[in-house]
Fold this protein.
Amino acid sequence: MRKFPLSRRPARINLDEYRATLSRSEVARPENNFYHWLLGTGWTSFLLLVVFVYLSTNLLFAFAYLACGDGAITHAQPGSLLDVFFFSVQTMATIGYGRMTPIGHMANSIVTFEAFFGIVYSALTTGLAFARFTRPTAGIRFSKVAVVGSHDGIQTFKFRVANDRSSHIVEAQLRLWLIAESMTSEGERYRRSVELPLHRSESPVFSLTWTAMHSVDDESPLKDYLGKTAIEQQWHLLITFTGYHESLANQVYARHVYLPRDVQQNASFVDIVTVSPDGGRVIDLTNFDKWIPNTSDKLVGEFL
């Protein structure tokens, strides 16, 4: 019977190895949660992976048929990899033209396993494609940059949100968070999350655009971080969006991160609303990400 000592001393932590482990993003690796990676990756990557696996497995089965020797597949040229590859495709897809057929226990055993693999592979790819199509997405666009400028005489942080779809999102909510690294008096590092209040954080019906604003006054924690280059890489702004999508009949979510380099100081967004001759309002989304400096000095970079 195995005994567990009660007075066992805890193992000493190697700080160098601990820091090296923290520097590697284990959570973000696709192989740690392959299913979620398949759902979250782009359609191009997903389709390329499906085609690659399909062709690779057929090629492996073709080599297996070649290993059975000449005559294992009727009407196949002896030693022809291309013929047995096409036979593998016909078997996996359950086409069965009838021209090429397996002969012998070994070849038929491989056909049995490949037919089973083809059924499972088709079911998995169909299920993944269906899950990707039916997954609700918000269709929300955030401005590429955020600006800090004057609004009613108060320094204000602004960013834009747009609804890329024609349907409405009801009970939409925006929340702005400041994520910053801080140090305790004992010298311990921790990440601090502070919610920054917005002028308007809710919208009963979100259909077009939304310019969210936060006053950078003396009570705002953001004031201590703007314009300080010493801590540029130690903070960022996180925006979360939630709402009920009318067309999808489901709750949708979206999020965006603004790094310090994405925040333009002393700037304003270009107006996207124009008045038509009949008095109507027209929104021009071509100016959605454009901004101009508030001072006469032209800043380095393309802002228009």
